[in-house]
Amino acid sequence: MSGATDEADEADEARILAELTAMIQQVLEGYELEEGEVTPATRFGRDLELESIDLVTLAGLLEERYGGAVNFAAFVADMELEEIIELDVGRLVGHIRRCLEAADGVRSDGVRSR
């Protein structure tokens, strides 16, 4: 069962990465990203050069796509500035997946809660 759960998690993360990449492209307004340029290791600040206003725009797109289940502001609220600058796509993907699981009543181990 663990193998099936791992595969489902990987599929969810791949889907979320694709959705997040599309949002990043919107934020970058026409700047063409090379295929494969956005990976889990891609950093918002250093690699994509997103500024704070860009992150605000991304937060709006996340809310538009996922509703209140994913709150980007709450996610970064306890981070230091350097931690936000070094934030990578994979960490945000993991956060989104956990938020969606919680909203659906599914624990991170794949077991549906009551």
TrEMBL record:
SUPFAM superfamilies: ACP-like
Biological classification of the source: Bacteria, Bacillati, Actinomycetota, Actinomycetes, Kitasatosporales
Signal peptide: none
Coiled-coil ranges per UniProt: none
Alphabetical list of Pfam families matching this protein: PP-binding
Residue ranges occupied by any Carrier domain in the UniProt entry: 20-86
Organism of provenance: Streptomyces kanasensis
The protein, known as: Acyl carrier protein
UniProt-listed InterPro entries: ACP-like_sf (IPR036736), PP-bd_ACP (IPR009081)
